[in-house]
Amino acid sequence: MSRTLIVTAVTAEADAVCAGLMGSWSRGRTRLPAGPGNLVSPDWDRQLLTTSTLGPYVGRRRGPVTVLAAGTGGPAAAAGAATALAVAGAAGQPFDLVLTMGVAGGFRGWTEIGDLVVADRLVAADLGAESGVDEEPVRPAERISEIDRNLGFHSTGAPTHRGNGSRSADGAFLTLDDLGLGSSTVQPEAALTSRLGLVLDATGRRVITGTVVSVSTVTGTERRAAALTERLDPVAEAMEGYAVALAAQAYGVPAAEIRAVSNPVGRRDRAAWNLPAALASLRTAAAALVAHPEGLVAQPATTSGAGSATLGGSPPHGGNGTR
After folding, report:
1. 57: three-class secondary structure by DSSP
2. 97-106 and 236-238 as β-strands: parallel, antiparallel, unpaired?
3. Residue 174, Cβ density class (10 Å: 0-12 exposed, 13-18 middle, ≥19 buried)
4. pLDDT tens string for the chain (323 positions)?
């Protein structure tokens, strides 16, 4: 039976996933019109949730699925995922698939709170280098009002955007690809993302497939949200997916990312967040996955010769879409 590692950032996300694994789905549900059978949990879904020691980490396991809260941000998530993969492999029980799951910010026009997102492209959005010369003389440091600071504007107004293509509102941005240092993009195997989307459709939640950006600093201004939209046209923003995918790639294991939207990306406004709704969607997503283990089966990982790293050999990214 295929073994799956689900990596989350924080315990609250892992709790929601584990709650789904414990079985929100019951017999008597209607069958899907096409695809992965009915919503009946397999026999192993009725087992008890147990702890699983993975080096210094403690995961929670139900049948072939192990859930690990590895920590917030790319470095912590990659360390946890790599350790889990190494320990499981050494024990003769390697994982066959790695999923990053958790809450995320959603970009306006693509998502709403509570939506589920399946990444067909994972991009390290702020991993690279700024480049170019200042297009305007550098002004002496001025005091910035609090409201302008929150909006990301200087007291003298927003800088004029003269860029296009890969240029952001802050000037030229060079990706790892531009710098010849690797790739800032990972693409999951297309058939895997398609299967995951089909399984999640059974939840009744809206499912969006598209680019999910991984950032080291969460977006907190409309200005940065607009720059990311112009450069990458993402549907959601999180912190761990790209790093976890690289860890999985190092062990030749396919990876994918599923997110539940908790807030709009833009000006930081905690009053606009709805974590309970996102965690409820995350729990529902996990329940659907555990009811359809065939949706977790993926092809062996490969690496493309140029451009982005590819898990399982998907075609080039052809843009975002809604399901």
Report:
1. strand
2. antiparallel
3. middle
4. 689 999 999 999 999 999 998 874 443 343 334 333 334 444 444 456 899 899 999 999 988 999 999 999 999 999 999 999 999 999 999 999 999 999 999 999 999 999 999 999 999 999 999 887 555 554 544 554 555 545 555 444 433 333 333 443 445 889 999 999 999 999 999 999 999 999 999 999 999 999 999 999 999 999 999 999 999 999 999 999 999 999 999 999 999 999 999 999 999 988 889 999 999 999 999 999 988 876 666 444 444 433 445 444 333 333 344 44
Counts for the chain of helices (H) and strands (E), in that order = 8, 14
Q: Decide if 238 contacts 104 (C-beta within 8 A).
A: yes
Structure tokens that stand for 164 in this block: 């296009």
Strand 321-322 to 128-131 pairing: unpaired
Return the structure tokens found at 21.
């694994």
Q: In whole angstroms, give the CA distance from residue 317 to residue 233.
A: 12
Taken as a whole, the chain contains a residue count of: 323
Cβ(126)–Cβ(224) below 8 Å: no
Helix (H) or strand (E) holding 21: helix 11-21
Round to the nearest angstrom and report the end-to-end CA distance of the chain.
Answer: 29
Q: What is the three-class DSSP state of 210?
A: strand
> What DSSP letter does each residue of 80-116 carry, written as one string?
HHHHHHHHHHHTT---SEEEEEEEEEE-TTT--TT-E
Q: What region does 142 belong to: left with phi over 0, alpha with psi -120 to 50, or beta?
A: beta
Q: What's the pTM value of the predicted model, to 2 decimals?
A: 0.77
